[in-house]
Design brief:
- 2 copies of one chain form a homodimer.
- Chain A is α/β, with parallel strands linked by helices and about 375 residues long.
- Chain A is built from 14 helices and 11 strands.
- In chain A, helix 10 packs across helix 11 and helix 10 packs across helix 14.
- Chain A is globular, with a radius of gyration of 23 Å.
- Chains A and B meet through helix 9, helix 11 and strand 6 of A and helix 9, helix 11 and strand 6 of B.
- Chains A, B: One of its GO terms (biological process) is tetrahydrofolate interconversion.
Amino acid sequence: MASSPITMMKMKLNNCSPPSTAAAAARFLPLLGPHQIRFRSSVAPLYNPSFPRTIITRPTFSSSSIITAAMANEALVKVIDGKKVAKDVRDEINAEITRMKDSIGVVPGLAVILVGDRKDSATYVRNKKKACETAGIKSYEVCLPENSTEEEVLKYISDFNDDPMVHGILVQLPLPSHMDEEKILHAVCIEKDVDGFHPLNIGQLAMRGREPLFIPCTPKGCIELLHRYNVEIKGKKAVVIGRSNIVGMPAALLLQREDATVSIVHSRTTNPEEITREADIIIAAVGKPNMVRGSWIKPGAVIIDVGINPVEDATNPRGYRLVGDVCYEEAIKVASAITPVPGGVGPMTIAMLLSNTLLSAKRINNFK
Amino acid sequence: MASSPITMMKMKLNNCSPPSTAAAAARFLPLLGPHQIRFRSSVAPLYNPSFPRTIITRPTFSSSSIITAAMANEALVKVIDGKKVAKDVRDEINAEITRMKDSIGVVPGLAVILVGDRKDSATYVRNKKKACETAGIKSYEVCLPENSTEEEVLKYISDFNDDPMVHGILVQLPLPSHMDEEKILHAVCIEKDVDGFHPLNIGQLAMRGREPLFIPCTPKGCIELLHRYNVEIKGKKAVVIGRSNIVGMPAALLLQREDATVSIVHSRTTNPEEITREADIIIAAVGKPNMVRGSWIKPGAVIIDVGINPVEDATNPRGYRLVGDVCYEEAIKVASAITPVPGGVGPMTIAMLLSNTLLSAKRINNFK
């Protein structure tokens, strides 16, 4: 069965469509697999970054030639392997912890406070605990029931603030609605605020000539990926999509500290596509599955995709799959480097939390 | 004497040239006055925003018709009158201070600490004192010699922190080089930091859902001008040129809080002209005389020029004149609104300092 480029585009787009459409498309995939795809160049657009450009000049293609050419094209794009980098970072942390333990007998400690019984929060905390253990960081965990009082949480924070064995304190968010999140987060002493969300830290991050004690983990992870893949930031045009306190805003501040020319795109931006298309570096942190399409991307741009969005997928045993804020299938044909989802920024967040905890333990103990 | 458009351009450009060139050009002005200028449309560019477009369609012009048309065109551009707005703001502050005094007997107090004998600093402090008196704010002034110790300054700050009559504390910068500026500024308690430079304030300014106690005076003045001239910010593209801690960076954060799509242009930006030309709103705060030329400006853009740069001017009795970061003569032919220098942002800074002091007195005394 032959299908027109339009059919193929539809299929491609379906991969980057909203959940329900994606699920519907997924049902068709076994019937209309890639081995059945053909397209005629006469209907193909002159320049369409979502197709390998080398193919467009040829009239018809067998399925295998398309696949081979697409693979060749995609091979030129660096897939930024967050899993690998996170492992390298964790190995380095582990070596540093051993060195510190051997020379001054100090083991970094991270305290995590979990209130209520949200399943996702419990999973995050469990993962953090596991990562701590692997890295050689001692973890202290407090699990409080949903109906705990603010005072109880504040008491634990106060105790951890005073505890010399604890170098980082993390309050898992979101807190139950009856608690004042700002008040609780502000109770964590700034020297142990390994999340880096304290406004004093954010202020230092924003100001030239100042140094924050900690950099928020996810944006720190994004920049670390750029560094490890030797992506030049200085003088480059960077667009951050999303302006959340935990990712978008601090990511923009970090890029600016590295001398990028930064624009911030958000829900009120009238022409996000046009602005994004000018960027050499894109950090997408908006939480909208596949929002950034191939047409939004300047050829050769580097893309860090922070989004981790579940979309329905009947072909997946779990009934869903995870996608980023960027339509990976389209982006990989235009970008010069991109983080996959999962396996991109995700693993970096926990690695940076460990990094911040080590940093804190070193600073508190004046260990170089 | 007739002169070609090129000569006219040269003359125009000379007004926006570096100091020495401007001074040299100024010497020629009496010989080559505007009444002698002609240009032929055949050599005039098809679209040149630095000329009134209505004129370009006509073949030749007498000097008077050029001047009339230019004046008509410039009349369409709103000159944002900072002097007038600052006066309005100060009148409003004055009325509020009277109301507060009458109802709870509290008079706002501003303490200014001046160290050393820099002439410019002394002038600033004198102006602030005068503005306070006019507005009905009590000012407390401490002048310390250049060779004072850090401890002496810190002692004064500590006393003012504890003094219930003082609602705002301002340390005049720059401090002598033997003092740790950061340490001294951090000693001012956050509730009296009317300058708004404390990183905790900056952090709150950067974070969504948080409110800074004070907004730094100059950027606050820029936004106030936009508000009072009913310039829509939400959804607009804004470019801030310069990223200083005291103007550029907080101005960008403020514009973002008002839902503009903000880009920050700085010394490492490779194509500042191109990026600036996309802006609906430009805030220039870079300290470079006439850096932003007519060609940098999108027709209809609104320009807030924060720069106050002295340039040599032999025709001026003082030997210099003040110019902004934007070439006013060129900009006024392209922009829809612009602040002049002087008389634009300048008068707003002190007005905002008074506004912050009043705000502080109200907050400390819980007066609505």
